[in-house]
Amino acid sequence: MAVTIKDVAEAAGVSISTVSYTLNNTGPVSEEKKQRILEAVKALGYVPNGMAKSLKSRKNGFIGYFAHSLYGVVYGEVLRGIENEMDRNGQEMIAAKCGPMQDITHISRLLMERMVDGAIIFSEMIANEQVNLLANARCPVVVLDRELEGPFVSSVLINNEDSAFRVGEYIHSLDLKRVACLTGRGFDGERRLLGFKQAAEVFQLDCPPNWCIDAGWDEKEAYQKTIEFIRGGQRPEVIFAFNDEMAIGCIRALQDMLLKVPEDISVIGMDDIDRSALTNPSLTTVHRPLCELGEIAAGALLGMMRGEESRKIILPTSLIQRESCIKNWAK
Fold first, then answer.
1. For residue 5, what is the domain's CATH number?
2. pTM, whole model, 2 decimals?
């Protein structure tokens, strides 16, 4: 007899509605209850009705790509890579935005009822619980910049932690000590901050907690936060922005305050977007292979759809030295 949502609720000691809230990410559930529900789902091998029915039906021929955004330098490059690989394999794809301001109910339904043959997910709005449900239903899933493993779940990510550590090592090689960071939230931000903090400890860099400033991954916000920070009397030797857009906003703010980059303050970014080579001065940054990330993710998904095993793939990065950083003795 098929396992039902009632069986899961009884095993977890919660109501049916609480199970539904957890699995569909549609309502508040405590972490303790959520964990009990997920353990019950795994132990019982529960698959929602819509997904179970779809397993018996023919394939629909579409891949789903669900991302925080479909535009911008980062998300646009990843999407370009996915499209390249899909085109090479003659695979149709649908794409949908699921950022924090969107109602993702329709996307959850599309995933839960298996309206796609596989999915690439680049958004934290689609919770791990939903990804695991898809895996339980044998729907291949690739998650980007998130570590999640299972029989039908592959992870493709860029080594953010090591990249940020290398930035710290590079700053040390320039004999710079006082470092401020323009940070961002989410998995990427957490890993970059962790990597940089490790480097700061190893190389004895001075980066007080209040010098790590959340600028929301946004150029305009980074501009404003940089002005507030410097006008507050702080004077780092270098500012490490966790993406190039924030670094570009930071450089513009420093220049508007009549500070010279890098003579007064060095600036380093991350991503190596096209604009980073065109700023004045050109931006020292970390190259992240975003288009390749998309291509490899698409290839991994198509491979799982052909019966290949799931896997975790970590892509390396490289430091691009340009004009926005200078050795301490030259200041």
1. 1.10.260.40
2. 0.78
